[in-house]
Amino acid sequence: AQSVAQPEDQVNVAEGNPLTVKCTYSVSGNPYLFWYVQYPNRGLQFLLKYITGDNLVKGSYGFEAEFNKSQTSFHLKKPSALVSDSALYFCAVSPPGSARQLTFGSGTQLTVLP
Amino acid sequence: GAGVSQSPRYKVAKRGQDVALRCDPISGHVSLFWYQQALGQGPEFLTYFQNEAQLDKSGLPSDRFFAERPEGSVSTLKIQRTQQEDSAVYLCASSLEGRGQETQYFGPGTRLLVL
């Protein structure tokens, strides 16, 4: 069975500072990994994914994530946070070979303080 | 272009009523997914269609839940004899099929409240 852990329910960061939202996973084989963002009363918006290739993945709105196989992690990062980045962030994993049944973490609420 | 749309956006049902939730995927997307998101939690997988075929329904919580996609486009999630524990946001997602097309694009969800 696959699982995802987001160890921080809440992350606060000052505007302009770098941000990190943590994600670790457990799955057999080489997983597909995703980050989504959710704004209030809206669905999930895709940010980025790791399927194969370079461990550093760049996505929308200046976000990036680094796949670390030895640490089974896929942390989301941004060099300079904006107030508008404040939202709920979800990490997700799917079984190797196809992105079918996504398993999501419990989410991390990011608040960027002006 | 148009994204995934869902209707209704909000639904209030009395316990025991049947409800039907609709999903219109992105045009041309072969795969369609339903997820349930309880308050304060991440989405949980319910079921998956490839065209009109329901290939995985392992996440449906009970036989009160039924999903269909008869023409391989629009999908309906039906919940019979609703219970209070069915209160959640129901998310629909769609994707193209094939290597490099793994991203699931989500609709805004239907918020169901069972009283």
Observed structural traits:
heterodimer; A: 114 residues; mainly beta; 6-stranded mixed beta sheet; 4-stranded antiparallel beta sheet; 12 strands; 51% strand; globular; B: 115 residues; 7-stranded mixed beta sheet; 48% strand
Portion of residues in beta strands of chain A equals over 45%
* Order of secondary-structure elements of chain B: EEEEEEEEEEE
Strand content of chain B: over 45%
Oligomeric state: heterodimer
What is the typical, i.e. mean, pLDDT of chain A? 92
Q: What is the number of beta strands of chain B? A: 11
Note the total helix count of chain B: 0
Commentary on this structure:
Helices cover 0% and strands 51% of the residues of chain A. With 114 residues, chain A is mostly beta strands. The model of chain A has no long low-confidence stretch (mean pLDDT 92). With 115 residues, chain B is mostly beta strands. Helix content of chain B is 0%, strand content 48%. Chain B contains no helices and 11 strands. Chain B has strands at residues 5-7, 10-13, 19-24, 31-37, 44-50, 53-56, 65-68, 75-79, 88-95, 105-106, 110-114. In chain B, a hairpin with a 2-residue loop joins β5 (44-50) and β6. Chains A and B meet through β5, β6, β10 and β11 of A and β4, β5, β9 and β10 of B.
Give a short summary of the structure.
Chain A has 114 residues and is mainly beta. Chain A is built from no helices and 12 strands. Helices cover 0% and strands 51% of the residues of chain A.
